[in-house]
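Any chance you'd type out a single protein's sequence alongside its tokenized fold?
>
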Amino acid sequence: MDSVLRALTIYVFLLLIFRIAGNRALAQITTFDFVLLLIIGAATRNALIGKVYSMIHAGLLIITLVGADALLSIWKEHSPLIAKWVEGTPVILVENGEPLKEQMKQCRIGESEIMAAARLLQGLERMEQIKFAVLERSGGISIIPKNCP
């Protein structure tokens, strides 16, 4: 029964913390958000199987980590340099139907991945139909098709 109460307590605690942190924390996940969730998962695990002290300790860790993430978010809003360093920048992979091999190599993206995104997102069949393919900061590939008459 103790495990059930611990689980419910942690569930309610995490629900409250993420509601306070706002929806941005659960929007598109960045690398830093992923690391944050991994660490929160480890802290939560310890709280679920440990003693009362471990629940308090986990709560403090989670509040600290979510608070640090919120402060980093604010800092990124006020400093484009920090935002660029933390989130990266979008990279153009295809321009006017021509794959930009150097950018693709740096990003470790192949033509097959670009074409898969083009088919899935825009129903395009050939590279020549793509005006721009952009590797977004989130890791997804955006496709802008050429206007074909």
In short: The radius of gyration is 21 Å. The chain is about 60% helix and 10% strand. Residues 89-145 form a domain with the CRO Repressor fold (CATH 3.30.240.20).
